[in-house]
Amino acid sequence: MLDRSRPLNHRPVRPGPVLYWMNRDQRAADNWAVFTAQQEAFRSGQPLLVVFCLQDAFLGARPEHFSFMLEGLSETARELQDFNIPFIVRRGDPSREVLAVAQTVQAGLVVADFSPLRLPRQWRRDLAAAADQMGLSVWETDAHNIIPCWLASDKLEYAARTIRPKIQRQLPAWLTDIPALVRHPFDLPAELLQTISGPGALKAIHDAMADLALQTAPDGRRQVLPPPGPAAAKRRLAQFIAESLKDFDRRNDPNLPVSSRLSPYLHFGQISAQRVALAAQTAAQSDPALASPVASFLEELIVRRELSDNFCFYNPDYDNWNGFPAWARQTLERHRADPRAYRYSDSQLENGQTHDPLWNTAQLELRDTGQMPGYLRMYWAKKLLEWCASPEQAQQIALALNDGLAIDGRDPNGYVGVAWSIGGVHDRPWGERPVFGTIRTMTFDGCRRKFSVDDYIRKGWYRANG
Length: 466
Ligand SMILES: Cc1cc2nc3c(=O)[nH]c(=O)nc-3n(C[C@H](O)[C@H](O)[C@H](O)COP(=O)(O)OP(=O)(O)OC[C@H]3O[C@@H](n4cnc5c(N)ncnc54)[C@H](O)[C@@H]3O)c2cc1C
Description:
Blueprint: E1 5-7, E2 18-22, H1 32-44, E3 48-54, H2 63-82, E4 87-91, H3 94-105, E5 109-113, H4 118-133, E6 137-141, H5 149-152, H6 160-174, H7 190-197, H8 201-214, H9 230-244, H10 263-267, H11 273-286, H12 291-314, H13 326-334, H14 346-350, H15 357-369, H16 374-387, H17 391-405, H18 412-423, H19 444-450, H20 453-465
Parallel strand pairs: 2-3, 2-5, 3-4, 5-6
Antiparallel strand pairs: 1-6
Helix pairs in contact: 2-8, 3-4, 6-12, 11-12, 12-18, 15-20, 16-17, 16-18, 17-18
The structure holds flavin-adenine dinucleotide.
């Protein structure tokens, strides 16, 4: 079996329970990190436990988004417990909390899942360094990408066309079936479990939900989100494959509900991208008419998604101006002083009160449902470039709205989506225009030629007004 793990410090694995620190991949099934931890625990006949750390605030996430995560986690906790794998919930700094649990149980190995983002990487670095002092080995397993991010490519990729051949060459080896967990035969002593988990994970999750119920989002609204959790994710996948995958090539029409709407589940790791890809491939094998839509879907799910992780992993400036390619910074610099026809306050933007009814409808969909059709996300971010005083401001406002309102926000795909729209990342120069320079533009009339803008606005009006 290929190795999806790499060491984060230089300590050898020693005898003792194996601990999986779950962070990005919040599921029991199809999770290479928990599978790897179980394999290591088997090798030495040791107990296995999973720890999750809750932070009180994570990059501006809304209470509803925490709630989506917590409900998914309670499902995952129960699933793991059915495999005799204790699930421990702690509150606080993950590097400290994971280490404290590891110390108490005298762990022999800690396995972490992988994230390319700044803060989660810092946690992993801190944990690995502190564990090193204790002689404890820490590994990282990429359970999110199909090809581990550091192996898909060893450098920052320029565009989809440069990473695609690398992915296509390696994919057959990695896109294999995923082994199932088995009931873990080695128990953690009951008193030890009691010491580290207190009243238990479900109680900790329940308490965190109760705290959230007391909180309202800063705007006092409550988004209507899709049903959370791994089981809901599997139902969504099955429905997508049965009903809308065949029309996926028409996904740029926001009036057609043909895209998978799996991004919230993929973001919280409630479903595995590898499982989704296998399901789409199986569908194509049984129906040749699905070959083209499945190829388009896998391009988004694998090439585009793994390209986003590549960007954030190799570019520390993934969320600021310095992350834009040189040609984009030069052209935006030349047009910095161009007059802007419209300017709006943060509140006008957040509440969809601009002159552009298409933008307003998309923004209100994001504000009220935590989601926005993919095609409109590009239009939405590009209009911010047109209306803000500077590209830096446009990027920061786009990220604040996306991270604050989108249920799939705070994700590499979001940082890259914004940087693509505003800063030409993974794109190329187009015709020169005011404000945009040679960054690709999108216009209201261009949207009109692609889909019925009026229908989209009408549906948005009904959604907002009942
Ligand atoms: C300004 C902007 C902001 C964005 N913010 C986010 C975000 O916060 N979180 C997020 O997951 N995606 C983001 N995207 C990417 C993309 O729009 C969404 O992934 C997609 O719309 C989610 O809907 P879906 O699950 O129905 O996707 P589908 O079209 O069904 O695609 C399946 C999966 O492939 C991946 N995918 C699709 N399109 C892209 C893409 N362009 N880049 C990378 N991966 C992709 C996603 O994981 C998605 O769930 C953003 C794009 C832009 C232009």
